[in-house]
Specification:
The structure is a homodimer. The first copy, chain A, is mainly α. Chain A has a single domain, classed as Na+/H+ antiporter like fold (Up-down Bundle), CATH 1.20.1530.20. Chain A starts with 6 loop residues before the first helix and ends in a 14-residue tail after the last helix.
């Protein structure tokens, strides 16, 4: 047939997007009825339609972009709900949670890989994949629980920013060693300083600018509707963050915090909600799409995945809990568990490791298994822990 | 640098999407201030950032998919504003407009190509590219004018459906001749019957089903918010339409008409509006992205483009006007001019012609030039003609 749509590629992409959205919606509704976090249903929907089970949808660049926009709009939403001064209020404990929550899993990951006899570059990548928290997953859970504006919720967000910068540095070191054999300290300092400068510039300067000109997104000379200016700001900061080596979602989060200081915060929330509802399922489902059960046919791999997952959970909980000084015990536990999901970030780091020649297919399969397991296990636990938070509201805004 | 975002491809895609959205928004605002239809500003923004001028953004599959979703949401919106019984009310004149509006441009296009000494397959493709109206462009103009619910607006929509089915058949014949040397009548009948059956099934059966179960999109056992079920229906029908060789937007239009019969029409309109606002600029800008001024360096090509554009305009106006019986003269003129834009459809047909080996680069450049010119010229004329319509409302719902 001759698809007048726009070439066969576009027609097939439409079909894939339709299948993912349909499966994710069904998974979402089933898990809602089970009283479980719906994002697990959406991840499992991705497992179902993806290569692991039915093979209806293959991972592709188009799906990657939709997934990325999904997590970008999640973090933009989170930014919209976050005031910079609240975030600065938890700055010290968030930094400690981020730093210790990176160091301990890094040590654990490196120890496992070294014990299996891997070389330094491979061990570094393996450790790096265990380091990075998926703030997208945790954020979606926090939104669902209405816990974004609790002290522990804010601590998780701040820690996730620190975590992301540190993870980027670890990946930079691992890449440098895998490619050239050694890492240049000077280069690392530049990379780290650029990331910090980017975050500080928009978190402090950007929000101050918006407080001074709170009507800028809907200035009569500028735009009729505030939605597109806000979305353009979000995509722009996301793209810049990605280009300088940070996660795009850090840019989206900063953009959200800037918009939160304007007069248009609430109308923009209403208009962003449908974009969130449309794109987020691609983010969750695409994590499931990465899973290929064929890789797990050999029993020893399953044993290793279990071991790695346990290490990933325990090291992150211990590290983050140790960092969560100044919070009550229920809050510290909530923060520590909230940092556990590795989600798409672990998978992305493993992908970079494959491209650098430092990781093989088996290591990738192990990391994907760990990433999916940590992501699926955490939400119900967080939900149970949220009830014990001192400042959890009874109802909060949610995008859907 | 190591983009933690999700691989360099995704980071670059984010940057392209950002640049397109930013440029389109600026173009939109400039043309709003000039009192001109904003979609022209968005098309020219695509010309500016694309290969023709700055070269910041290259056409890609990701952008194609975003553009396709743009026109899908435009037509979904149009469907939401269209009641099937109103469309059936203009059925006879719409069919005539569609049929004559295909035959006359087809004859004109074939004559030009044959006069230039092209063979049958090439002449057929050239004629096919002149045939198909871009209902996406016309719809966006109708939305902007609040003219969707006028008798002439509905006639254009109905005629565009007929036009699309006929164009698909012409392309099928042209492809068959280009590849195999002849077209099988039996196969053409099957293709045409399938397309008609698809349209009739959802236009008549689908809307009847929705009238009978108007609460289905928000049934308590089915879904909390009606947005995703509606969008899934839209993507599903779009994908099926594309897979059977029709334009995806026909499916989206049918889905919109079905949703228009439910109780959720208005909440869905509100929630679809941000999706429209986000995706539509990619549709307009991507038309401009196709333009490559390098192809027009030789003066004779510009002469041919002018000639072909004049033929494309005159034949469509004459054919459609002749078909618009039973309408007043201002209405018939509005309908005839409304059918003129070839937009993305002409470009897509030309692309199929290149893949089939029937069109060369020069023919493609000529068709792209004609498509962009017919698209840019029409909106201001339509706006002027709209004032003379007997049933134009003073204000109408618009997605932004």
């Amino acid at each position: 047939m001759i698809p007048l749509a726009a070439g066969a590629g576009v027609a097939d992409a439409l079909l894939s997007l339709f299948l993912i959205l349909l499966a994710a919606k069904i998974g979402d509704e089933i898990f809602k009825r089970l009283g479980q976090p719906t994002l697990i249903g959406e991840i499992l929907a991705g497992v179902l339609v993806g290569p692991a089970v039915l093979g209806l949808v293959e991972p592709s660049e188009v799906i990657d972009v939709f997934a990325e926009l999904g997590v970008v709009f999640i973090l933009f939403w989170v930014g919209l709900e976050t005031r910079i001064h609240d975030l600065l209020g938890v700055g010290r404990s968030a930094t400690l949670v981020g730093v210790l929550g990176v160091i301990v899993p890094f040590a654990g990951g490196y120890a496992i890989a070294a014990a299996r006899g891997e070389d330094a570059a491979t061990s570094l990548f393996f450790a790096a994949a265990l380091v990075a928290t998926s703030v997208g997953i945790t954020s979606a859970v926090l939104i669902g629980l209405g816990a974004l504006e609790t002290r522990s919720g804010r601590t998780i967000l701040g820690a996730a920013v620190v975590d992301d910068i540190l993870a980027m540095l670890v990946v930079a070191v691992a890449s440098a060693i895998a490619v050239g054999g050694s890492a240049s300290i000077a280069e690392l300092v530049v990379v780290g300083a650029m990331a910090l400068a980017f975050v500080a510039f928009f978190a402090l300067g950007g929000t101050r600018f918006m407080r001074r000109y709170p009507g800028v997104l809907k200035a009569p000379r500028f735009s009729e509707s505030p939605l597109l200016p806000a979305v353009i700001l979000c995509l722009g900061l996301a793209a810049v963050a990605a280009e300088i080596g940070l996660a795009a979602i850090i840019g989206a989060f900063l953009a959200g915090m800037m918009v939160a200081e304007t007069k248009e915060q609430h109308p923009i929330e209403e208009e962003v909600a449908p974009l969130y509802a449309f794109f987020a399922p691609f983010f969750f489902a695409s994590i499931g799409l990465q899973l290929d059960l064929g890789s797990y046919a050999r029993v020893p791999v399953i044993g290793v995945i279990t071991l790695v997952t346990v290490v990933a959970v325990v090291t992150k909980v211990v590290g983050a809990y140790a960092g969560a000084r100044g919070l009550s015990r229920p809050e510290a536990l909530f923060v520590a568990v909230g940092m556990v999901p590795r989600g798409e970030v672990g998978i992305i780091v493993a992908g970079i490791g494959i491209e650098a020649g430092a990781l093989g297919d088996e290591a990738f399969a192990i990391i994907v298994g760990m990433a999916v397991l940590t992501t699926v296990v955490v939400p119900p636990v967080l939900r149970a822990l949220a009830a014990r938070l001192p400042d959890i509201p009874s109802a909060a805004p949610a995008p859907r």
